[in-house]
Structure to design on (348 residues):
């Protein structure tokens, strides 16, 4: 059927008259959170995901008269959002972390290189993952952690979409084919290739990870000790937390470091007031990111009296040891995480 001015679009009992902007907004906003997460998985950027969600709502509004009610509004919005993501991804390089680009650097010979003009993967605040409605599905950590997001960026765009729709969101093959405007056979073929790539890219033990949304007590304790080591600029305390083969990186700087000794050497240099690479006094504040242990890092540069946003540190913890530290040096993202430009009271 065609939607006339006096007709309605229904989704789960809600009704929206065409031309009723407020009613339309109320309906589509029910799906805003999950669409943002979907677009973030597709694009690897929370900023781009937000733009695409708004573009999705605009396209939906402009094409409301073409909605024929053969699917739910949710499925219709996913179709628009997925294709908007595919438009963004067309011809663009994938988003990466530094370890995707080059071998580890030598801390003895490599100062911090210039910032790389690369489309870097971004973190997402946990507050954007939390369910806005009582019946909404909680975003589990296994499909929002950095390991998954880094791996999925290696997939061609349409394989990426097929994997997310089928394996993450649980769309049937027919619905996925409708979203991608292709055949079920094509979807199944793309999914098979995508799964093979993910098996190669994910850590060997990845399938044993659970679909929980909260940090466990061990991770909370490691995060507490990590922040304490940073606040005291104590390399020895940090050494007790690091796995032997830990890797550390700080995009958008392309250099990264592998192994406890290399990481500690780099940290010691940046924490030493007598070093030419000294960044300043740091303060760490707990924050939620990608369902992983994470802290917002504020810095007081030499000669300054106050702290300023510096980086968002996201940790991977296994067996009470940090196996990966990613410090996203993107202070502009602090407001998105609900953070001010000064550390909260009690952390100054």
């Amino acid at each position: 059927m065609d939607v006339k001015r006096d007709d309605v679009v229904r989704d789960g009992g809600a009704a929206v008259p065409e031309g009723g902007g407020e009613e339309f907004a109320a309906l589509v906003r029910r799906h805003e959170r999950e669409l943002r997460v979907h677009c973030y998985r597709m694009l690897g950027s929370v900023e781009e995901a937000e733009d695409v969600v708004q573009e999705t709502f605009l396209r939906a509004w402009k094409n409301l008269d073409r909605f024929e009610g053969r699917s739910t509004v949710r499925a219709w919005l996913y179709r628009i959002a997925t294709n908007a993501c595919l438009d963004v991804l067309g011809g663009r390089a994938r988003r990466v972390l530094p370890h995707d680009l080059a071998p580890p650097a030598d801390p003895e010979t490599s100062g911090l290189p210039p910032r790389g003009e690369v489309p870097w993967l971004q973190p997402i605040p946990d507050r954007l993952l939390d369910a806005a409605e009582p019946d909404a599905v909680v975003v589990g950590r296994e499909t929002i952690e950095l390991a998954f997001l880094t791996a999925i960026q290696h997939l061609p765009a349409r394989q990426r979409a097929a994997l997310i729709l089928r394996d993450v969101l649980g769309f049937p093959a027919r619905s996925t084919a409708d979203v991608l405007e292709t055949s079920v056979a094509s979807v199944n073929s793309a999914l098979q290739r995508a799964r093979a790539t993910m098996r190669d890219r994910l850590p060997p033990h990845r399938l044993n990870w659970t679909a929980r949304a909260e940090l466990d007590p061990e991770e909370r304790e490691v995060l507490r000790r990590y922040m304490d080591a940073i606040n005291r600029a104590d390399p020895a305390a940090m050494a007790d937390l690091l796995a032997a083969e830990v890797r550390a990186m700080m995009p958008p700087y392309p250099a990264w470091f592998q192994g406890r000794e290399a990481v500690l050497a780099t940290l010691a240099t940046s924490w030493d007031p007598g070093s030419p690479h000294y960044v300043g006094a740091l303060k760490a504040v707990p924050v939620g990111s990608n369902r992983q242990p994470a802290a917002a890092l504020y810095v007081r540069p030499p000669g300054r009296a106050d702290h300023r946003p510096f980086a968002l540190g996201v940790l991977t913890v296994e067996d009470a040891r940090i196996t990966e530290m990613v410090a996203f040096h993107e202070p502009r993202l602090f407001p998105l995480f609900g953070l001010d430009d000064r550390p909260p009271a009690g952390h100054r």
User: Anything to note?
Assistant: The longest helix spans residues 184-201. Residues 1-19 have pLDDT under 50 and may be disordered. The beta strands are 8-11, 14-17, 242-250, 253-258, 281-286, 294-300, 308-318, 321-328. The first strand starts at residue 8 and ends at 11.
